[in-house]
Amino acid sequence: MLTSKQKKYLKSEAHSLKPIFQIGKDGVSHKQAMTILDALEKKELIKVKLLDTCPLTVQQAALEISMQTKAEVVHIIGHTIILYKESEKEIYKLP
After folding, report:
1. pTM of the model
2. Can you give the CATH number for the domain in which 69 is found?
3. Domain total for the chain?
4. What is the DSSP string of 38-80?
5. Which residues form the CRM domain (predicted)?
6. 90 lies in some domain
7. How far, in Å, are 17, 31, 51, 76, 82 from residue 61 at the CA level?
8. DSSP annotation of 15
9. With bands split at pLDDT 50, 70 and 90, how would you rate the model's confidence at 92?
């Protein structure tokens, strides 16, 4: 579980990132969740964008992704989810 100080740090780091995944009309599939997990292992911090055609709300999609990947939801902004999962590389040093 991330503290508020850690979330604030990660939000500032994610500000310059572009969303690398889009969730569309099919929602969150297992295959897509595993691809997100692979990206989290390499980058630790990513953004996921929900398209207007997605049948899930942004909160439902964030919960689904975090349950399947065991990642932390750092923040939700509009239709964008910021996810963090610590990897062995330790790219981000949390306060």
Report:
1. 0.93
2. 3.30.110.60
3. 1
4. HHHHHHSEEEEEE-TT-SS-HHHHHHHHHHHH--EEEEEETTE
5. 1-95
6. no
7. 20, 14, 11, 11, 12
8. T
9. confident
